[in-house]
Structure prediction request, 310 residues.
Amino acid sequence: MTWSVADIPDLAGRRAVITGVTGGLGLATAIELARRGADLFVTARDAARATDAIDQIKAAAPSAAVRVVSLDLADLEDTCRAARELIARLDRIDILVNNAGIMATPRRTTADGFELQIGTNHLGHFAWTATLWPLLARSDARIVTVSSLAHTGAGGVDLRSLTTEGSPRRYFRWKSYAESKLANLSFAFELDRRARAAGLAVASVGAHPGVSSTNLTKTGARMSRNPLAGIAMHQVTRVIAQSADAGAWPLLMAATDPTLSGGEYIGPRGLGGTRGHAGRVGSSATARDPVLADALWLASESATGVTFDV
Prediction:
């Protein structure tokens, strides 16, 4: 049977935390969860855009309870501060959606000196999830980490990029993006392995939106010294891609479908995974490699200074 948003159960009394809700997938995901009665905590870097996002969520779900937490995943101190703020305010988290991210940016570094894409997409979410872990473990949470079809283009993760010295190889923005998305998925699967080994009921799953029209391509274009190619790509993507609402279906299924177990991967089922209804999909063998996952986990602890003891 085909999954649809109509299959999302009543979420009244359930608390969901979503990173990156100022547009695209995060906003679409937040709106649907709010419509089903979830108690929402959402994160954003920009206060003005966060206010606009809340207005859109409230317009779609007038009775929704929505609160914003300031979070910059490209700054580990701020990331841990935001997570500790939630720990102080909440008794549990039922659904965590690690959605925020950047794509194909020029060579830049985070506040801590890491390559920007691996630092934001992976290390930021690693430190965020690790710091929130006491709340997540206590409530048998569903943790959704958003990856991408692009993960299949990476044959591994250059662990040297998880150091402030960085990788000595030449920087290619799409290669680095692919590796950051592979890291996201490897992390999701490894977190589930460790939770199972610890006898916990936490379920960690991965999801990807296919090819969807969001602000990711626009962000990369804005940061480029020669943005014309990026702007052109953004405009083409708007024409050929599915909507952000459709791109959010796999995230919503991953977050709410009670039939799912940990370690699954959800994405569009049509046109080679680029669009269509959400369902269980395959991943690259590299994403499920436990040796890579363990090495990535240890390197991430070392990079962030955060011990993630499941």
User: Anything to note?
Assistant: Residues 231-236 have pLDDT under 50 and may be disordered. The longest helix spans residues 173-197.
